[in-house]
Design brief:
242 residues; alpha/beta; Rossmann fold; six-stranded mixed β-sheet; five-stranded parallel β-sheet; 10 helices; elongated
């Protein structure tokens, strides 16, 4: 089983799979870095947190950065946070931030649908995303009447993939993709020749990217979380063995 998450994150998925008896092969395709401004815009935004009525964070990586930046603030000082899914919300558990919305569908479209229209005069929203992100949240929230200020929480770059990584990937029975970026980078950095025979996706957006690149998706997580992906892969393995 090939795990393609960033090296700093892969251990979570790998550990869960290995605890269930899987042989996990880690081939990180992305690395997570601080934004080019070192996080200064986010620090300034939180220092002026009273000017926002709502924060929205679009990924667990963004939530991790937000939680670190919020340390030192008293509980209740910063506006509430809407998270794209439960994995994102969990990263704020030990922070002074209060989560007020987690949609049923852990995708950007689900968050846009779940977000209420703002009250008059209470429409200022701080959106935390990766440097390169789909415009769904920014455009969808603006269309609902929110005044969106977007801040880059982190950026992703290519990981260093070796010939040994490519050889290891080719021995896997299934590859797990946790984002569109992992699909695109796997194909570009590792190559289609090393693609395992089965593909597992964390959700519909990632699956759509896989399909666009000519891949068949054998497993799609529901819910669209790491735990959902683990459960879906386990069900796939059980079907193969039955």
């Amino acid at each position: 089983m090939v795990v393609t998450r960033a090296s700093t994150q892969a251990s979570v998925l790998t550990d869960k799979l290995m605890a269930l008896g899987a042989h996990a092969i880690g081939v990180a395709t992305i690395e997570i870095l601080a934004p080019t401004d070192g996080g200064e815009l986010l620090r300034q935004a939180l220092a002026g947190g009273a000017r926002y009525d709502q924060i929205v964070v679009a990924s667990p990586n963004g939530a991790r950065v937000l939680a670190a930046a919020a340390q030192g603030f008293a509980s209740g000082v910063l506006p509430p946070v809407a998270c794209v899914g439960p994995s994102t919300a969990a990263k704020l558990d030990d922070s002074p931030l209060r989560v007020n919305l987690v949609p049923d569908r852990a995708v950007a479209e689900g968050l846009v649908d779940a977000m209420p229209w703002p009250s008059p005069g209470q429409n200022r929203l701080l959106l935390l995303q990766a440097e390169v992100a789909r415009p769904v949240l920014e455009q969808g929230l603006a269309a609902k009447g929110w005044q969106v200020e977007r801040v880059t929480a982190y950026r992703t770059v290519d990981a260093a993939v070796t010939s040994a990584d490519r050889s290891a990937a080719s021995t896997g029975d299934i590859v797990t993709f946790t984002s569109s970026s992992t699909v695109e980078r796997f194909l570009r950095l590792v190559g289609g020749d090393s693609m395992p025979p089965a593909v597992a996706s964390i959700g519909p957006i990632t699956s759509a990217t896989a399909h666009e690149h000519g891949l068949s998706v054998d497993v799609e997580a529901d819910p669209h979380t790491i735990d959902g992906l683990v459960a879906a892969v386990v069900s796939w393995a059980e079907r193969r063995l039955s």
